[in-house]
Design goal:
- The complex is a heterodimer of chains A (about 675) and B (about 325).
- Chain A contains 26 helices and 24 strands.
- Chain A is an alpha/beta fold and about 675 residues long.
- Among the domains of chain A are: about 100 residues, no CATH class; about 230 residues, 3-Layer(aba) Sandwich (Rossmann fold); about 100 residues, no CATH class.
- In chain A, strands 6-7-8-3-9-10-12-11 form an eight-stranded mixed β-sheet, with helices on both faces. An eight-stranded mixed β-sheet of chain A has the order 18-19-20-15-21-22-24-23, with helices on both faces. In chain A, strands 2-1-4-5 form a four-stranded antiparallel β-sheet, covered by helices on one side.
- In chain A, helix 18 packs parallel to helix 20, helix 19 crosses helix 20 and helix 20 packs parallel to helix 21.
- The longest helix of chain A has 18 residues.
- Helices cover about 80% and strands about 0% of the residues of chain B.
- Chain B starts with a helix and ends with a helix.
- The interface between A and B is medium-sized, with 34 and 25 residues.
- Bound molecules: adenosine-5'-triphosphate, iron/sulfur cluster (SF4) (2 copies) and magnesium ion.
- The site of adenosine-5'-triphosphate (ATP) has 15 residues of chain A, from helix 1.
Chain lengths: ~675, ~325
């Protein structure tokens, strides 16, 4: 018999709505966490994952309350404990690693103090021993020079470092159970892979049980032994990680897995229609009913119970799960990616563009030039054909958004020329740009909450470009707005809605509609899906694809998610510290990531499959500034050739597939080295 | 850091310069001038000439501005009209009296406001919060002249505990002044305290809802320790500026209250000199009030800079 660390029995948590109704956001949750086990809790935003994890520590957010049920820790209900008892458990027996470490470290206290605080509370060490222990902990989470880190304030660390500090703090009391709420969301791919690897190591090393909450099945696959899938406040599936990810017998999980872009898949993933119901809106029947492709009439009225399927060792909440037992990935037919026709019809030519954020000195302002020998973005040369989708990838700070902004005219380039439609030079000053060029290039942002004016209705938002560029008005305008909205699959009744009345996916559709209303030639997409849940992300990607087929639009698509990029792009450009490393057709870049940096990036991608492990080939150091001379990647390159990398900018080399890389090592040698590894 | 401080000081000086210009120009463009207003019907011939000469109104405006400004910088505001007194002599005791009143209000008001704000935030939606919040919102809505009058009515007239209005000569010593200021201080600090308490409350509540406080709780930090180490330093930082604004705003409250209580401070002088059309005094008062405003805000900015590790290290790095 396995030792149980925590048992959750029939837990329901809810709030009282303005109308006085009691609304549950967790419904009848029962599960157990065993000793030494890592349990992944996955579900889309708002499914109640965080609420559940916090309840395991006896913490219920202000405004919420426990309706029924208990969380048993060492034969006591943690939800009924007094503060004094909780203080002895929290941090000592059960510790939390928060979603956003940056915001979870107290800004006015030094890192060392915050770790010391945990030690003082949960151990009997004297001051000197604690100091030693702080260094040990920081070392354990692989932070360089612990002494200096301890003296810093939280804002003086990078995101990955803050996350590590949070891990160190949680380990201070040597807890039995670690709760992790999206610990890697918001980190770069490489950093994310490193933090996960660290967590796996700690789980093995200390034997701590972990509960890992995430919306990212890729991360869940890497760390969990068991997975719990939540939907709308209920557990819909609970079983061993391989069963859940390879033979998902609940329709929601099945659909979710199909909507994730994967490196092993070509083309776009299937999207799932609809979105998760708001808490309190489902009164009867299965909460997944209106999105389920296996739904039957009985699902509408009866709510399925959690049922244990013994041959799979899995609990499932669905009447029809048997239909999915034998269903394997074979029938995952992804919609084919439409490849560009090689027209050789150049629409944008970016040549030798450099962009600097350095503050202009007074004299320079007068002379209207910038004197920065080491600009943020340097020497970018890219030609883009009509109807092509070019993706820009790279870690945060690699200058992806900066390049988009300078194409859109929002940032002035320091040097270089951007030509539109073969020979028309785009002024780098927005005010001097021809209105027609402004129309031709549209931008869609990462966060629709910030880019849509909250005080405008959908109608007003979409009408702006139509009025501005085409001078439409009255009935004609209205018809056009409806037509554009239809293109992004939003019905007429959305016209009078405000952004706050839309879901994340719907908001992003409105943003897409606004961009398309201008009949642009080029659309710049800046991380347009990264704020969305996977099921919604697939829908937005498919939408962009269809619009491309209909209008022949050219996209420049920025994303840090390499699987998404693979799904949508014709060509990929890899950036490191604002310098191009590799550019080529996506098929061949993904097959032979020749440049050492591309190799590092692709190696760190997390697949939603526990049997595919990321390859960590380089340290995830954060570099503040690009190096003054030599190759931009010299600081982290696992294949560093020698002195030449530090002194000379590497030359461009092209292989037979049209992959161009910038490295001192011969492109064929790089490929051979990768194969021999 | 130093550069930033110097910049702020420079900005303050520019503000003062502009205020001085505006008051000066304002006085210039008003129909009539100091002498005609003062002499009224006798404003002709030799008397007018003499007056002009005495006040230096016979020289061009810009020259007058320059010499006046130089005087002000040296701490000399020239002569008042009515009493033919040096303005400095008029102002001196008044400034002292008002300072006594204002600082007593601040010294009592700020600690009470902090305490109430913190209590209401920590016991949010519970009895202490409901009671105190009702009270603070109530006192925020009554203007000073009403609360002051009510105070006089209740405490001085019905209960006869304290004198209702202040009947001491302008130049009395602080110790003689003290019993007289109790009621005015209460009247002034009521609104100010209520305002600040609300601000502190919302600031503390915001910090209490932050991820790092949640984290501290989950780390097992005992409640009061969490409040003092993790919450208050972060919550009170933004409150510094609010306090500064409230103090500056208190200047207005002082004017009203002083008039109601007949208190011999700057506020009453403002009203008196405006009704007497004693323009040189009005000018002097405008400059003094503006300087207080600027100085208080400067102090608040510097305090924030010093206490916020984020800003501090940013500045040092540069
Ligand atoms: N204080 C509150 N009052 C009312 N409703 C709340 C409150 N906090 C959370 N909710 C609701 O409870 C539901 C579950 O929230 P929870 O934070 O647990 O979701 P989650 O699965 O962690 O989502 P995410 O992936 O976005 O972190 C959501 O619908 C949310 O809107
Ligand atoms: S119970 Fe019915 S609606 Fe619910 S998931 Fe199963 S098949 Fe779909
Ligand atoms: S040039 Fe040198 S440092 Fe740069 S990628 Fe190639 S081997 Fe690495
Ligand atoms: Mg969450």
């Amino acid at each position: 018999m396995q030792q149980v660390v925590q048992e959750i029995k029939n837990l329901s948590i809810g709030f009282t709505s303005k109308k006085g109704e009691q609304i549950s956001i967790l419904k009848n949750i029962s599960t157990t966490i065993n000793k030494g086990e890592t349990v992944g809790i996955v579900g889309e935003s708002g499914s109640g994952k965080s609420t559940l994890a916090l309840a395991m520590m006896g913490y219920v957010k202000h405004g919420l309350f426990t309706i029924s049920g208990e969380c048993i820790y060492q034969s006591n209900d943690i939800l009924k404990m007094k503060n004094r008892e909780l203080e002895n458990i929290r941090g000592r027996k059960i510790a939390m690693i928060p979603q956003n470490a940056g915001q979870s470290l107290t800004p006015n206290l030094k890192i060392g103090y915050q770790i010391d605080e945990a030690l003082r509370l949960h151990t009997n060490f004297q001051k000197e021993d604690r100091d030693v222990k702080i260094s040990e902990l920081l070392n354990k989470v692989r932070l360089p020079s612990p002494e200096t880190i301890a003296k810093r304030y939280p804002h003086e660390l990078s995101g990955g470092q803050q996350q590590r500090v949070a891990v160190a703090m949680a380990l201070a009391g040597s807890p039995d159970l670690l709760l992790l709420d999206e610990p890697t969301t918001g980190l770069d791919v490489t950093t994310q892979a490193h933090v996960l690897e660290l967590l796996n190591f700690i789980a093995k090393d200390t034997g701590t049980s972990m509960v890992y909450v995430s919306h990212d099945l890729g991360a869940i696959a890497q760390v969990s032994d068991r997975v719990i899938v939540m939907y709308s406040g209920e557990i819909v599936l609970d079983g061993p990680v391989r069963t859940i990810l390879k033979n998902p017998i609940h329709p929601y999980t099945y659909g979710l897995l199909k909507s994730i872009p994967k490196l092993t898949l070509s083309g776009l993933p299937n999207s799932m229609s609809g979105s998760q119901p708001q808490p309190g809106t489902i009164k009867e029947g299965c909460s997944f009913y209106d999105r389920c492709e296996f739904a039957e009439d009985k699902c509408k009225i009866n709510s399925p119970e959690l049922e244990f399927v013994s041959d799979l060792n899995t609990s499932v909440r669905c009447f029809n799960h048997k239909k999915l037992h034998k269903k394997k990935d074979e029938d995952t037919k992804s919609s084919k990616k439409v490849l560009r026709k090689l027209t050789k019809n150049e629409i944008l030519d970016i040549s030798s563009v450099s962009i600097s954020y350095a503050k202009q000195k007074f004299i320079e302002q007068l002379l209207n030039k910038i004197d920065d020998t080491n600009p943020t973005v340097k020497d970018i040369n890219i030609k883009i054909d009509k109807g092509e989708t070019l993706a820009l990838v790279g870690e945060s700070g690699s200058g992806k958004s900066t390049i988009l902004k300078s194409i859109a005219g929002l940032i002035k380039a320091k040097d270089g020329i951007i030509k539109f439609d073969k020979n028309k030079i785009l002024s780098n000053d927005l005010k001097k740009r021809d209105a027609n060029y402004l129309r031709a290039i549209q931008l869609i942002f990462q966060n629709p909450d910030e880019s849509l004016n909250p005080n405008h209705t959908v109608e007003e938002i979409v009408s702006q470009p139509l009025k501005l560029y085409f001078g439409l008005s009255g009935n004609e305008l209205k018809q056009k707005i409806i037509e554009v909205l239809k293109k992004v699959r939003l019905g007429e009744f959305y016209l009078t809605r405000y952004p706050r009345q839309l879901s994340g996916g719907e908001k992003q559709r409105v943003a897409v509609a606004r961009a398309f209303a201008a009949k642009p030639d080029i659309i710049l997409c800046d991380e347009v899906t990264s704020a969305l849940d996977v099921s919604v992300q697939a829908a937005v990607l498919n939408l962009l694809q269809e619009l491309k087929v209909d209008f022949g639009t050219t996209y420049i698509f920025v994303s840090h998610d390499l699987a998404v990029v693979k799904a949508i792009s014709d060509r990929v450009a890899v950036l490191y510290q604002g310098r191009l490393c590799e550019i080529g057709p996506s098929e061949s870049v993904y097959k032979f990531p020749s440049h050492p940096y591309t190799e590092v990036l692709l190696g760190a991608v997390l697949e939603p499959d526990p049997d595919i492990k990321p390859k960590l080939v380089a340290e995830d150091i954060v570099e503040e500034k690009p190096p003054e001379k030599g190759c931009s990647f010299q600081g982290r390159c696992p294949r560093l050739l020698g002195q030449i990398c530090k002194t000379d900018v590497p030359p461009w080399q092209i292989d037979e597939n049209g992959n161009a890389i910038r490295c001192h090592i011969k492109i064929n040698d790089l490929k051979n080295q990768q194969i021999s590894n | 850091m130093l550069i930033l401080v110097l910049k702020r000081i420079l900005l303050g000086l520019i503000t003062l310069f502009i205020v001085s210009l505006i008051t000066f120009v304002g006085v210039e463009v008003l129909p009539g001038d100091a002498c005609t207003t003062y002499l009224e019907r006798e404003a002709y011939g030799a008397a007018l000439e003499a007056c002009y000469k005495r006040l230096g109104l016979d020289i061009p405006a810009y020259e007058r501005y320059v010499s006046w400004a130089i005087g002000v910088i040296q701490g000399d505001f020239g002569y008042s009209l009515s009493g033919e007194m040096k303005i400095n002599d008029v102002l001196g005791p008044r400034v002292k009296n008002s300072l006594v009143l204002a600082s007593a209000s601040i010294l009592i008001g700020i600690p009470i406001a902090l305490l109430l704000g913190i209590i209401t935030a920590l016991w949010r939606d519970k009895m202490p919060d409901i009671i105190i919040s009702t009270f603070t919102i109530f006192s925020m809505t009554i203007p000073e002249f009403i609360s002051a009058t009510l105070l006089i009515l209740i405490v001085a007239i019905w209960l006869e505990w304290l004198p209702g209005i202040v009947i001491v000569p302008t130049g009395v010593s602080v110790s003689e002044l003290l019993p007289n200021i109790i009621l005015p201080v209460i009247a002034i600090s009521m609104i100010m305290t209520a305002h600040m308490a609300r601000m502190v409350r919302s600031s503390v509540i915001q910090v209490m809802a932050s991820d790092y406080v949640q984290m501290a709780i989950l780390k097992g930090v005992p409640y009061w320790k969490m409040v003092f180490k993790h919450v208050l330093p972060n919550a009170l930082l933004p409150a510094i500026n609010v306090v500064a604004l409230t103090i500056a705003w208190l200047l207005g409250g002082v004017v009203v209250t002083e008039v109601v209580f007949n208190y011999p401070g700057l506020g009453r002088l403002v009203i008196e000199s405006i009704s007497n059309r004693d323009l040189p005094v009005v000018q002097a008062l405008a400059i003094i009030l503006a300087s207080i405003y600027v100085i208080i805000n400067l102090i608040a900015d510097l305090l924030t800079l010093m206490l916020n590790p984020r800003l501090k290290s940013l500045q040092i790095k540069k």
